[in-house]
Structures are given as C-alpha cells and as structure tokens.
Amino acid sequence: MTVKQALNIVKLKKMKAEGVPLSMLTAYDYPSAALAEEAGVDVILVGDSLGNVVLGYNSTLPVTIDDMVYHTRSVARGAEHTFIVADMPFMTYHGSIDVTLGHVRRLIQEGHAHAVKMEGGLEICPAVSAIVSAGVPVLGHIGLTPQSVNTIGGYRVQGKDPEDAVRLMREAKALEQAGAFGIVLELVTEEVAEAISRELSIPTIGIGAGRYCDGQVLVFHDILKYTSSYREKRFVKTYADVGGVIKDAIGQYVQDVKQRAFPEERHVFGADEEVLHTLYGAAGKGAR
Predict the structure, then answer these.
(1) How many independent structural domains does the chain possess?
(2) Which amino acids are annotated catalytic?
(3) Residue 6 has what pLDDT?
(4) Is residue 49 marked as binding?
(5) Which residues participate in Mg(2+) binding (predicted)?
(6) Pairing verdict, β 204-207 and 182-186
(7) Which DSSP helix (H) or strand (E) runs through 193?
C-alpha cells in the first residue's frame, strides 16, 4: 500500500493555483485523526472548538494552551502523514511576542503540529509576521471569529454590508502580506468570500462561506452528528448519525446487562478441573 504523503504550504498554494479544492476536517484525538487520514482528508485542524464538542464548554474561550498541546499531540499520533494545524487559543497571542512565540513553540515541539491558526485581522498581523519569521506557518482566520464572539455581538454572518465587505478584504490582504499561507473564512457571505478568494494568491478555506472558497472545513462532530443532542446548522452537511448509533448501542448493552443476556458463554474464559477442585473441593463445578 502506498503511504500517503503529507501536504505542505507549497503544495497547498499549488493546489489553489491548479484549482484543486482543499478538504479540511477538525480532529481532537487519536481515533478521529486516524480515521480522517485514512479517509483522505488533506488537512487536519485541531480546533479550539474542542471546547464545545469535547470538553463541554459553551464557547471556545475557556480552552487553554495545555488543552491544545494535549489534543494536538494525540492527533499527531493518529495522523502521521497529514498536515496538521493547531489553533492558538484565546489570549495566547495578544501579549508580548516572546510570550506568543513560547505558546507557538509548545504547539510545534510538544504538540507536533505543522502550523498554527490565529483568529483576527489587522491587529494580529505583527504576531503573524513574527511567527512566520520564526519558521512556523500560520493560517489566518477572519469573518466570524469565535474567540471574539463577545465583542462582535454573537454568531452573526459577516460581510452583509459594503463597509464590512471592505473590512474583510482589507484584513485578508493584510494577513497575506504578513505571511499567512492561507485564510479560513467563517460565516461570510458567499459573494464576499468569492471576491477574497479571487484576490488572494493564498488559499481560502470556507466554513459557512459559500461555494467559491479554495477549500472547505467542517467540524468532525458536526458531519457525523457525534453528540447527544445535535443542533442543525445551515452551513453543515451531515454524512452520518453516529451519535444515534452510539446511543442505541449503549442502550442495548445496558438492557443486556440488566437481563443477564451479556456476557454469553462465548464471552467467558473457563478454568480447568484442577482450579475448580481447589476452589470447590470434590463438588467441583457443580458447587457454584
């Protein structure tokens, strides 16, 4: 079997130039990463969305750098031949450059990521430049930026008026100039996302940003309905109801245990007569 070759930022930019769409999926642990790699995903994002879908928070804000390092390292073990991007969590890249680079170092050296992702526009460009200069690829992220949800008024579609469209275009160009190898566009109107994608030489990866980005990203748990109570999202296409299957299977297990239908004889290990004699004496097995 041919071993899959991981992409890199040069190949990613070449895919954009050749019009080859990029597939990106989040993953947060070893088994999800291994399955994503086996399925042929181009890029795995270890998103701080793990706060919502794995850790049970109601936003990404409580996610720490320790959380991200731990989960990134798990993903890296499961997807050794896939390009892995790790999110920089809330407030880990808004202080001094030295502190920012320290967090980046952990994601690369301890987490084994190939690149980091950062939310924001003009205000983070100096940090992007410094990180790229240090030798680490950076994926930008504009539009709806969940880490800023409290300042942008909730989970709203971006680029719905001329001023906002101009702002997004300006931010995208600034991130490209700062050295970002690509940009995630989240919850951006399709027309604005298309215009940005045409203007940039680096790939755009959309989530809720329409059909004309250079690639798409979705959350592992969304495409599989891997949750106890799934909330439908307009921009998500679900491909399986894994959550329902898991819940039904666990329910059947509970029922089997209650009814003593599990374990069956085929699930147990028997002892020889010498062991039985030691335990029960001459009565042997029949004493039980």
Answers:
(1) 2
(2) 186
(3) 85
(4) yes
(5) 48, 87, 119
(6) parallel
(7) helix 190-199
